[in-house]
Write a structure and sequence with these properties.
This protein is 29% helix and 32% strand. The chain has five helices and seven strands. The protein has helices at residues 9-17, 76-90, 104-112, 138-143, 152-159, and strands at residues 3-5, 32-38, 44-55, 59-68, 94-100, 116-121, 131-137. Strand 3 and strand 4 form a beta hairpin.
Length: 160
């Protein structure tokens, strides 16, 4: 059974940054919050770094940087919990993910998580490679496969 790791932001951010070619160090995230995913033997499976917090009167958006050492991290409950943080705790309207256009595996992964491709920026990844921008709105998360499940009472009300 996988577990979430909280309170080790710096270590998790360092682990993620060292594995992302355009980040390299946690300082390049700017202000961030990080959550890790470990297996039952405490081996790191994935890390997610939330940064680029944007708000006006209320939180609007947060960017995510995800690195996964294994696809075993992607359990429904884990994904739900990771997205509950920005959508339920922070109350953001959307999450944004930036992915190198040539990284087809990562692009496929964010789409499976419910993100929608919103466009690409020429040379936007590192000054040479193109960058694709993906968004996941709160509404899409709530109605998607990783959003909150209705309680049995809510299900019965929908039927009535």
């Amino acid at each position: 059974m996988n577990r979430l790791i909280f309170g080790m932001d710096k270590g998790i951010a360092r682990w993620v940054a060292e594995r992302l070619p355009n980040i390299k160090t946690p300082e390049n995230f700017g202000p961030y919050v990080a959550i890790g995913v470990a297996d039952s033997n405490e081996r790191p499976l994935a890390g997610i770094v939330y940064n680029g917090f944007r708000s006006a009167e209320r939180p609007i958006e947060v960017a995510v940087n995800i690195y996964a050492a294994s696809p075993k991290w992607a359990q429904r409950g884990v994904i739900h919990a990771l997205f509950s943080y920005p959508f339920e705790q922070l109350g953001v309207a959307r999450i944004t993910a930036h992915v190198a256009k040539k990284n087809k595996r990562a692009r496929r992964a964010v789409r499976k998580l419910g993100f929608i491709e919103e466009g690409c920026m020429v040379h936007g990844f590192d000054g040479v490679n193109d960058l694709c921008i993906y968004g996941l709105t709160q509404e899409n998360w709530r109605t998607g496969k990783f959003g909150p499940r209705p309680t049995r009472t809510e299900e019965l009300k929908e039927v009535a």
